[in-house]
């Protein structure tokens, strides 16, 4: 799934975002409102990580959003070269 699809389903995605990045507040999610760069910035701030790391996490999330657990695991393993 690409980011446009995540953005289009933001209300559904926001719950998954909160599960993955629990330090994000409801206000953060409202601010992000489906915008990728805003999410990257908030993750950077809340977790104290580099922009590249936050972007990688968001890209991985967008690839797995809306997929079942088996598919997510396959995608995760493929990204590690396993």
- The proportion of strand residues reads under 5%
* End-to-end C-alpha gap: 21 Å
How many individual helices? Answer: 6
Helix and strand run? HHHHHH
Ranges where pLDDT stays below 50 over 5 or more residues in a row are none
Q: What's the overall geometry?
A: globular
Number of strands: 0
Supply the helix-strand structural class: mainly alpha
Topology of this protein?
Blueprint: H1 3-8, H2 10-20, H3 26-32, H4 36-47, H5 51-64, H6 69-80
Helix pairs in contact: 3-4, 4-5
Could you explain how this protein is built, in words?
- With 82 residues, the protein is mainly alpha-helical.
- Helices cover 76% and strands 0% of the residues.
- The chain has six helices and no strands.
- It has helices at 3-8, 10-20, 26-32, 36-47, 51-64, 69-80.
- Helix 3 (26-32) packs antiparallel against helix 4 (36-47) and helix 4 (36-47) crosses helix 5.
- The two termini are 21 Å apart.
- The relative contact order is 0.16.
- The mean pLDDT is 86.
